[in-house]
Design goal:
Order of helices and strands: HEEEEEHEHHEHEEEEEEHEEHHE
Organism: Streptomyces tanashiensis
CATH topology of the largest domain: D-amino Acid Aminotransferase, Chain A, domain 1
InterPro entries: ATP-grasp, ATP-grasp_RimK-type, MvdD-like_ATPgrasp
Keywords: ATP-binding, Nucleotide-binding
Pfam families: ATPgraspMvdD (PF21068), RimK (PF08443)
Radius of gyration: 22 Å
CATH architecture of the largest domain: 2-Layer Sandwich
Protein name: ATP-grasp domain-containing protein
Number of helices: 8
């Protein structure tokens, strides 16, 4: 089980201990190993049924759903051409995403808004609009623009990073060194993020509904202070209180993005200014919880329980079901 599955398992364990019915649906099971049946009779409410190797559920009863780190669909290997495989993926997406949008439930996070909120330029736009500070930033696939930016900021004071650092294509944040200048022509292959390096202390702020859990991650005395993700085991981690204005602005960002859950990365300069770096709508929190005791897992489970307890709308089928989709 991966570390991210540990997050899911912890929340599910708490929900089940509280007597909640939980169904975990892995989208990677569809369509090769999963069944979907949507029935719209002439009278009565629709019936939405999904079945996978590990789940069998009537989703029209769902009131609370957790959308987290969804995996790609898996098609049957007997579909031998890419054209047929793409068609199967497209049709599966139409059916399942249409189903998800039809559910009378509250999502953490709403799938469509979650997808949009992953885009960093949009995050930066929203953060600036609510009054948060950002590092000076350039996104480009033009080598001359990158060289100009680095000249203005300075070698050793500029970082470059990827938009998404997935497990199979990991890219840590790196300082631009003199020897990197000869490689800048490679940005023509894909846009790269260049940013002014912000010296200071990292903060991971996990937002769960209206609750804000902030942890200071001091990597200044570690072997790689440029990117705390690389050295979090060496860093000093402790819970902290944010200034009220910063908390308010982060909650405004979350609401503007349509997110219920998110893990925000900030840096605090030596002068006390807080700088917004990004928000991960499906960010990890266990590394913070284990080092600080902040009750984040309990709060995620409590949030889903509160959503599950809400009163159903008139003429909507009642039931108690929390669904984890991944």
């Amino acid at each position: 089980m991966s570390h991210d599955e540990d997050h899911t398992r912890g929340v599910v364990r708490r929900l089940e201990s509280a007597g909640r019915e939980v169904v975990r649906v892995d989208l990677a099971d569809f369509p090769a190993r999963g069944d979907i049946t949507l029935e719209y009779a002439a009278a009565g409410e629709p019936v939405y049924t999904v079945r996978t190797p590990t789940a069998h559920a009537r989703l029209e009863r769902c009131r609370a759903a957790w959308w987290r780190r969804v995996r790609p669909f898996t098609v049957d290997h007997q579909l031998g051409t890419m054209r047929d495989q793409r068609f199967a993926v497209s049709e599966t997406g139409e059916a399942l995403h249409g189903l998800f949008h039809s559910l009378d439930c509250t999502w953490v996070n709403p799938p469509a808004l979650d997808a949009i909120a992953h885009h960093k330029p949009y995050q930066w736009h929203v953060a600036r609009r609510v009054g948060l500070s950002l590092p000076r930033t350039l996104v480009t696939n033009q080598a001359e623009q990158a060289r100009r930016f680095i000249r203005e900021i300075g070698v050793g004071r500029t970082v470059f990073k990827a938009f998404i650092a997935s497990a199979d294509a990991w890219r840590e944040t790196r300082l631009v060194r003199a020897e990197d200048l000869t490689l800048l022509d490679a940005v023509r292959y894909a846009p790269v993020i260049f940013q002014e390096y912000v010296p200071g202390t990292d903060l991971r702020v996990t937002v769960v509904g209206d609750r804000v859990f902030a942890a200071e991650i001091d990597a200044s005395r570690t072997g790689y202070p440029v990117d705390m993700r690389m050295v979090v085991g060496e860093a000093r981690v402790r819970p902290v209180d944010l200034p009220a204005a910063v908390t308010d602005n982060l909650l405004r960002v979350m609401r503007a993005l349509g997110l219920v859950f998110g893990a925000v990365d900030l840096r605090r300069r030596a002068d006390g200014e807080y700088v917004f770096l990004e928000v991960n709508p499906a960010g990890q929190w266990l590394f913070v919880e284990e080092r600080t005791g902040l009750p984040i897992t309990a709060e995620v489970a409590a949030l889903l329980s509160r959503l599950d307890d809400r009163e159903p709308e008139p003429d909507v089928a009642a039931g108690s079901l929390s669904v984890g989709v991944r």
